[in-house]
Specification:
The protein is mostly helical. It has 7 helices and no strands. It has one domain: Phosphate transport system protein phou homolog 2, domain 2 (Methane Monooxygenase Hydroxylase, Chain G, domain 1, Up-down Bundle). The N terminus is likely disordered.
Length: about 240
């Protein structure tokens, strides 16, 4: 009696319970990654507001943690798709997770860039008090937390709320950019600090954009239809 070659043996189709368990485990890892990103933003903001170089260095060192989480979750998602037989709703969930971790990894990179700005301003003996940096930072961080909450609860209303907040961040970005330009013209000694702060507020605006990306993917995960919910993302805006 002949036996099949090992390469021709297909994996046993898992039970629905096992697939659900693996998806829950992946989602738990995503939430842990999001928590790291959120903490990195908070500490980067504090480092920039107070020009705390040691804290900024800690944020920079945490970049490896979020990078490893990104890779681990991606591998786990791909393994699920290859070895199991997920339903269409599972594909949407895993696809959303793959997009989310990319956004979260980039949020981590932006937190690192903000921390580096804090160190540069401190080294230059400059100031970060020309604008209310905590205001735009707090709004961007709230958008990210709400986007993650929308994912956890599968709540389209929260996803829409996140996207609606994007205009407020954009308005703040433009207002603060104008304030910094005025400071650079009227107080030449602030040019270096102001130029760094221009980069910082752009990074916060980008964090808000990543939160919108997550919210829009959550809406797709729930409904099966992809829409650009934020006015800044729509081609007709």
């Amino acid at each position: 009696m002949s036996h099949p070659e090992p390469d021709s043996i297909h994996p046993v189709t898992p039970s629905r319970a096992l697939v659900d368990q693996e998806i829950r485990a992946i989602e738990h890892e995503v939430l842990s990654m999001a928590s790291v990103a959120d903490a990195m933003i908070a500490d980067a903001v504090r480092a920039l507001s107070t020009l705390d170089t040691p804290l900024a260095t800690e944020v920079i060192q945490r970049d490896d943690v979020i990078d490893h989480a990104d890779l681990d979750i991606e591998v786990r998602c791909l393994r699920l798709l290859v070895l199991h037989q997920p339903l269409a709703s599972d594909f949407r969930t895993v696809g959303t997770v793959l997009k989310m971790v990319t956004d979260l990894e980039r949020v981590g990179d932006l937190a690192v860039d903000i921390a580096k700005i804090a160190r540069k301003i401190d080294l230059d003996h400059g100031s970060s008090e020309m604008i209310d940096i905590r205001r735009i930072a707090g709004l961007a961080a709230r958008m990210l937390r709400d986007a993650i909450e929308a994912f956890v609860k599968r709540d389209i209303d929260i996803a829409h709320r996140v996207c609606g907040m994007d205009d407020e961040v954009d308005d703040l970005y433009r207002a603060f950019r104008e304030q910094l330009h005025e400071a650079m013209k009227s107080k030449p000694h602030t040019v270096v600090s102001a130029s760094y702060l221009l980069l910082a507020i752009h990074h916060f605006e980008r964090i808000a954009d990543h939160a919108v990306n997550i919210a829009e993917r959550v809406a797709f995960m729930v409904t099966g239809r992809f829409e650009q919910l934020a006015s800044s993302h729509r081609s007709d805006s």
